[in-house]
Amino acid sequence: MQDVIENLSRTIREAASRRRPLCIRGGGTKDFYGGETRGDVLDTRACRGIVSYEPTELVITARAGTPLAEIDAALRAEGQMLAFEPPRFGEGATLGGCIATGLSGPRRVYAGAVRDFVLGVRVLDGSGNELRFGGQVMKNVAGYDVSRLMVGSLGTLGVLLEVSLKVLPLPVAEITLRREHSQTEALALMDEWSRMPLPFSASCHAGNQLCFRLSGAEAGVRAAREKMGGEEVADGTAFWEKVREQRLEFFGQPGPLWRLSVRSSMPPLDLPGTQLIEWSGALRWLKSDAGAAMVRDAAAGAGGHATLFRAEDKSAGAFHPLPAALMKLHRRLKQNFDPAGILNPGRMYPDL
Amino acid sequence: MRVVAEKLLVDLARQRQVVSALRAFLPESAVLFDEEDVKPYECDGLSAYRQVPMVVALPDTEEQVCRVLSTCNEMRVPVVARGAGTGLSGGALPLGNGVLLSLAKFMRILEVEPRSRTARVQPGVRNLAISEAASPHGYYYAPDPSSQIACTIGGNVAENSGGVHCLKYGLTVHNILKLRVATIEGEIVEVGSEALDSAGYDLLALMTGSEGMLGVVTEVTVRLLPKPVCAQVVMAAFDDTEKAGHAVASVIAAGIIPAGLEMMDQAATRAVEEFVHAGYRTDAAAILLCESDGTEEEVAEEIERVQKIMEESGAVQTQVSRDEAERLRFWAGRKAAFPAVGRISPDYYCMDGTIPRKRLGEVLRKIARMEQKYGLRCANVFHAGDGNLHPLILYDANVADELQRTEEFGAEILELCVAVGGTITGEHGVGVEKINQMCVQFRGAELEAFHGVKRAFDEHGLLNPGKAVPTLSRCAEFGRMHVHSGEEKFPDLPRF
Ligand SMILES: Cc1cc2nc3c(=O)[nH]c(=O)nc-3n(C[C@H](O)[C@H](O)[C@H](O)COP(=O)(O)OP(=O)(O)OC[C@H]3O[C@@H](n4cnc5c(N)ncnc54)[C@H](O)[C@@H]3O)c2cc1C
């Protein structure tokens, strides 16, 4: 593995000295996400393999180029999981891409996001230096939390080599239920439920169907099921996979796809187009041709932000613009980790 | 933990300048500099280090905080933020040539929003006050440091504090949504959002645990959780600490994430029993407290499983709390562990390493050997489920060289934690106390990266300087090499 990392490091050093942008890529399944990719491809897939996995410690450490599917299989064999249910968006999805995009799936609102499970990272910075932050233990406040800073930074601060993650046991019991509700009703209901201590683990409203998943101990799931009613969905696992991978009919409609992350208690957002709701109302997918300003204002008004998730034309910027004082901090952080500005430039914001 | 009691002679001309600059916008009563007025700020919870600040500023609006900071930035005066001063690593230790910025007047709970299950509070609000304010709505704020009646949410954010319920509900970083932060330049930035994520880098995570080195928190939005319908605790006594350590691993291995999983050794339980009469067996080598919460059904099921695991792991006795009063009594002992130890020894020194759970037994054995080596007693209290140790070294500062031996004992424990794959601090922060051990845990390249992060926020290095991240020359002077456990465990891995 030494040679692989040395190669990556050398490529970075050379690119830095010539100020040639690098496009960091694992399986390439998330090329669509964020701003346009440019530069010479830096393939991370040779940096592959599970380094250590100790079920009783609830920790797995794997190299960034390891396919998520491989990690999933290893965990499943021990009755454990990545609780944030990361989307794959294709066969070759790697751990590095999962961390760099910071995207979480259906269980997020109940179990936590990618960043909540990251314990430590090894990265190459924009000068090719190898750095390690965090570790493999649950609690660690030595030094700034650079590990979590890497999550969702889209490779603009460093090339991930290795990541340690906290894992959780698979729930003993799980059931998916369906009820018929309008969007307004569904939002009100999810809001009400999330104020009760119920073993929720996912929710999704599309069309007039509200689907939700209960997970946990047998008895708890059984009792909640009785309380909440609804008809059982036969293959729950397949259903949530479709939600996670954006293979439901909703996502197949033509036009740009927006991701609005908002205060969960917000009533329906009045925007043209159709919406699919996840995370008990905190995540709203929007298929719409509405102008970027309109969508972003609506998201900001709801306490959150909007990402132009999938679109032919991303000239409006993939991510929500930042206030000037915040952007200044972003630029200085980028400058610190990547002084030559060669790591995925423009993938997040034009000047990072 | 060298005592820093030598008094820096205050530069009186400088002091006058700073006082008058601050009084331009703060009332007279909010700018203190008389020896007797600033004395109460000379230390935090790590009282072996003391230093009176040059000036204390007590603003009560966010705008004033910004002006204190921009004034200090322009005058190049260092600033140390302070919440309740309960920190255990000297993070809020003042500087003799600096301003101590107290957030004590920021005590308002601005909003409890039952619909979105959030509370928006000022940084000087006490941790417990948040749960008290949320309680009528059926909610609480989950992270519960033992100091929760006194410590502030601003301090919790700065240290990424944890508590006995963090195993299941997470640390501060997992339970806050948004911060307003004043930069040293006097600008306000909002990091995080009312949604579950926000655009750009995760500065919310970066700010959390940054020990007042990157900015001053002026407002915190926290996530509230519904109070569990039901909670019960299993108390298990063991005749051997290694068996107790093994029981901890077995609970986790069985796929159970308890609401809390704490361990105390005999020295700790004896001290506690005398103090609060929690009902602990003092003849046991160690006791475990394992809590389950949730719906009645979930709790009943989990408690039964936990009790069985404890028995299989060799517990000599297990006891399940019969009612809420008994549950609280079991916890009262754990929560009073530090003060209880304070009663049996003139002084104690609290360590805070974290280790992989599987090394618990081994580390305990080695600590016991160190007790012999240094001729000092040590009581052990752990957030066992997280592998976070709090060895309490008992000493008497009035006995010649005991403090020094304590210091060496503590350093050896921290280095042991790093050597077994852990960290020098799980929740108390580096502060001034563990700054040398940072040289053991990190290499020059990482320390440089940390300094770069600091410069991104604080160009002139004025926010809490000299804490948390050592300079490379300091490490060279300390002369201890970086020891990374990974190097022993995976010798095949590359490094440069
Ligand atoms: C008996 C006892 C038990 C304890 N138990 C626990 C425990 O179980 N878990 C745990 O994690 N800790 C525990 N602690 C440690 C301590 O209570 C925590 O670290 C707490 O978060 C400190 O809060 P504080 O308000 O006292 O902060 P202070 O001590 O005043 O400050 C701590 C640090 O935060 C910075 N700071 C304070 N306010 C701000 C702000 N508004 N903006 C930016 N920086 C700021 C300071 O500069 C300093 O670096 C315990 C301490 C004691 C004395």
Features of this protein?
heterodimer; A: 352 residues; alpha+beta; Uridine Diphospho-n-acetylenolpyruvylglucosamine Reductase, domain 3; 2 domains; five-stranded antiparallel beta sheet; 25% strand; globular; B: 496 residues; seven-stranded antiparallel beta sheet; 37% helix; disordered N terminus; disordered C terminus; binds flavin-adenine dinucleotide
Provide a concise account of the structure shown.
Chain A has helices at 2-18, 68-77, 95-101, 108-111, 114-117, 146-150, 183-194, 218-228, 236-244, 249-252, 292-301, 324-337, and strands spanning 22-25, 40-43, 50-54, 59-63, 80-81, 118-124, 130-134, 159-166, 168-169, 173-180, 200-206, 209-216, 231-232, 257-261, 274-278, 283-287, 305-310. Chain A has 352 residues and is of the alpha+beta class.
List the helices and strands and how they pair.
The complex is a heterodimer of chains A (352) and B (496).
Chain A: H1 2-18, E1 22-25, E2 40-43, E3 50-54, E4 59-63, H2 68-77, E5 80-81, H3 95-101, H4 108-111, H5 114-117, E6 118-124, E7 130-134, H6 146-150, E8 159-166, E9 168-169, E10 173-180, H7 183-194, E11 200-206, E12 209-216, H8 218-228, E13 231-232, H9 236-244, H10 249-252, E14 257-261, E15 274-278, E16 283-287, H11 292-301, E17 305-310, H12 324-337
Parallel strand pairs in A: 1-2
Antiparallel strand pairs in A: 3-4, 4-8, 5-9, 6-7, 6-8, 10-12, 10-13, 11-12, 11-15, 14-16, 14-17, 15-16
Chain B: H1 12-23, E1 31-32, H2 35-38, E2 55-57, H3 62-75, E3 79-82, E4 99-102, E5 109-113, E6 118-121, H4 127-134, E7 139-140, H5 153-159, H6 166-169, H7 172-175, E8 176-182, E9 188-192, H8 203-207, E10 216-223, E11 225-226, E12 230-238, H9 241-253, E13 260-265, H10 266-276, E14 286-294, H11 296-312, E15 317-320, H12 324-335, H13 337-344, E16 347-350, H14 360-374, E17 377-383, E18 388-395, H15 402-419, H16 435-441, H17 444-457, H18 472-478, H19 485-489
The complex binds flavin-adenine dinucleotide (FAD).
Residues 44-45, 80-88, 91-92, 103, 123, 145-147, 151-152, 154-156, 158-159, 161-163, 211-212, 216-217, 338, 427-428, 464 of chain B line the site of flavin-adenine dinucleotide (FAD).
